[in-house]
Protein 1
Amino acid sequence: MNTIPMTPTTGKPALSVVNGFIRTEKPTVNGWETPESLIVGTESAKYPLHALPGIVGQAVREVVEIVKCPPALAANSALSVLSVAAQGLANVHPLRSLKPSPLSLYLLSIGESGERKTTADNFFSDVLDTWAHQKQQERETDLIKGRAALAAWESEITGIKQAITQAGRKGENTRELQERLELAEATKPKPVHTPDMVFEDSTPESIAYDLAHKWPSAGILSGEAGVVFGGHGMKADNITRNVATLNKLWEGGSLSIKRRGVDGSFNVRNVRLSMGLAVQPSVIRDFYETNGEIARGSGFAARFLLAWPASTQGNRFLSLEEATRNHPKNSLNLFYAKLHEVLERQYQNAQHGALENIPTLQFSHDALEIWLEYFNSVEAELRAGGDMEYYRDIASKSADNAARLAGLFHVFNGADVLDTITGATMEAATTLASWHLYESRRFFGEIAVPTDLSNAIKLDDWLISYCRQNHTDTITRRDIQRLAPNKVRNGNDLDKALGELEDANRIRLTIEGRKHIIDVNPALLRG
């Protein structure tokens, strides 16, 4: 493949090499050997910051300089905000035989607490809230008039219905009242729409309702990702329906929501949704262990541009000059100005409550050739022995995401919607899409591990969290059986998990009388 960076593996999935540890002499600190990773797999490739074009790339580099977070996390923050703002401007159409795709993106960043993902998010997403609030203030008078007109209309409807009921009881003719009701129903005041663009913790159904009734373009931007990977919305009785809803919204498709209650059933058409989520590895691992068949079988997992970068914690040192400098944020200010311009263009398209008749971006000849090369190179890796042989579902949406990225870069960096997407823009988009594709391959290869190793990973996460919270590096086996996750409390499963951790120099097992004591390697508890 020409545009996809090759991993340092032999092309086989990471799960095929999770079968033990290569033993070498390890340095010791305080009598402890260096702890080994429980997963033997590939490291995250360096994020291709050079591929982020123009204003977007400059702003991301500036945030990385200020925040010192992994570049992929800052880039995902910027792209999620860019997607929310620009998805209401245009569609993109790589294949004439298929319907156009929205410019919406689903982005997922995986990292431990403390990676400063939220800080990076705030540099980009605050503009959305500020702009939406400004629009709501500008239209406050119209909103008040709209609410009053709707209340008067509802009172009129109620009065006519009551009159029909009373006339019916008396045996009187209700034809004239019915005609009045028909006329009143036809003159329902049109709602006043103002932007409400960011969701943090809502169910997919409530998001669909708000898109249909409030503002047709929004984003789920969450540092906890509970709306998607946890909480009531993803319990066994809800997950299939909610994943289907989110899949349909990614496609820009229509939905028909059937429900009872005050608001009743409703239809969702001509709306757009993007997502920018962050989640800790243990949370996403639990989600896919429980719901992986549904998430992958439905294509939900394939829709995400996933980033799981190496941590920068422990290397984010500050100089005196950095600590006392008031960063001018020149690139960020350019990003903010452009984002405001894009939002104003979205406002013109969406102010009547739906994104109807928005233009479709077309590819130049060079861009189409580059996109086709990427599409075909991914397809070639699906064959037996290819890089994506075991990840065909994950690879299925990569070319579509590349087209969406190209469309976003096109409109955000100043091109007109009537101009064709250039080859350079498409080259940047396919470079990024390929990086995310291999991140997904690495992630799904490393969570698809044998049960015994999966239990060891869960116990390891829990032990580190427990020790940090309780300011200790020691715990008894009895306390593990009492407090640890249910799946690793049982004797046989616990023994195997502890054995894995001891083999990896992550713990030591000692016995004092009848007490079994587990010491955690201090190197794991730093930071």
Protein 2
Amino acid sequence: MLTPRESTTRERVLLDGLWGFSLDHEGRGRAERWWARPLPGDGDMPVPASFNAVLPGRDAHHYIGDVWYQRIVQVPRGWDGERIVLRLDAATHRAVVWVGDTQVTEHEGGYTPFEADVTEHVRAGEQMRVTVVVNTELHWHSIPPGFVQELEDGRLLQQYFHDFFNYAGLNRSVWLHATPRTHVSDVTVTTAEVDGQSSTIGYVVAVAGDDMHSVRIVVRDADGAAVARADGAEGTARIERVQLWRPGAGYLYTLEVTLLGAGGEVVDVYPQPFGVRTVAVDGHRFLINGEPFQFTGFGKHEDFPVHGRGFDLAVMVHDFQLMLWIGANSFRTSHYPYDEAFLDYADRHGVVVIDETAAVGLNLDTGAGVLNQAGPMDTYSDTTIDAPTQQTHRQAIRELIARDKNHPSVVIWSIANEPDTIPPAARAYFEPLVAETRRLDPTRPVAFANFMTATPERDVISDLFDVLLLNRYYGWYANTGDLITAERLLEAELRQWAQRGKPIVMTEYGADTQPGLHSMTNEPWSEEFQVELLAMYHRVFDRIDAVVGEQIWNFADFATRSGITRVDGNKKGVFTRDRRPKASAHALRRRWRGDA
């Protein structure tokens, strides 16, 4: 699905702002056709934002069920005769959309975009009523999974198996955009080869509409100068004196796709940014443009006070600037695809990204302890994670790659975080998903983030993948406070993994840290302990050549549901939730940048 972009043939209107809003406590909205009239009540809700972070009180914060959004939209009068499309960048976790009284689309999955052609339901220059019902529930066939538990007193409790708060609603932007009736519907750009000072790129263009057309492409450099041309919907183009996209130097070209009519007239123009770079795995080495790359950075979250997971440009830019300050060159979109603006920014600034699906919590072992769940349950069974879950997961992978395939910053597809990979059923679940990921994009390595109990002798799926992403908490969840034992056990395990002959990126390690808590004896939860624990991991990494990356959990403290191990959220950030540095931030800056 193409991102809406403006060109000489395309326009877009951002529909962010205040929308009418109603919580459907009794589940009456669908039966009573709330989409056919103004929503009950006089509630307002900003879009984008997580409604359960905006509204005060426990009922809204822990709400389960349908929430309704509605807005009256003016269709630009200049769009007469155009194809008019309504796009939602995300709706967590599923949605149905109406224009006027007509349902125009529905979507499962809370972190990827979807759209509807509404041309036949609207008129240029007139108003349209847009209504969206968003369902917040997680169930066994959703990604991420969960279930709704009914308590003895009749109250409902949303159970899930991931350690971040289940923020929901319209967390990202909504757009109305116009294209010609015959239009460019998809573009794929790949780096075919880099040879000295030149590069060949491959491209594929899909067109929707009539068949009486031809395709012409022009490659433009960052200054807008044409540097290559080609004709046809599929082919290659040669860029001389190419400037590569590199970590820390995000040079971008634009593939300008022009659709021509039978008489040579311009029908549609779509500009697709891209970068020229190669990614490869060579034994223990991870290569970008043929050069070894060492990941430094974080797992992150789209999380901030008041708007929850709602996208905010100011917070995004501030976070990138903090990563620059600390010396990070990469991050993982843990544990779901982030707003595409994150990737656009990473593309422009040379930040490397591990792009992850929302397949977090496919591990019922995590239901005990940290997440305060009852257990045990089998992860893979006819009543838990099963074939319909796998199908939802497959679709999530397809939508992730369809959205992000042209971003040069994305160098690894991570198809799951901490799944249960010990039982034999895990292989039957994951093997076809790995194959599908490679079929959709053979140019990038495929990985998943490995849970700490799935050690080399127990894990049954890691041989299917190209890179080993490991989440480990020696010294915190295991051997708490005993960093001497933790260091010995960590090194022993990493040396076992290194025998697999693949690059290792430590995608999670860290310790909860209460800002301002200090200790002469490096007690857990103190700032001193976080500094010492991270230093211990780094000593081990420096002794093992196979370790090519360190991404700390987490960039900043973030919201979780409440529990005896979670006081106002997860405190493993090296920055607080409002982005104040802990002592560890300064220690990391010294390691990653060499600054005193």
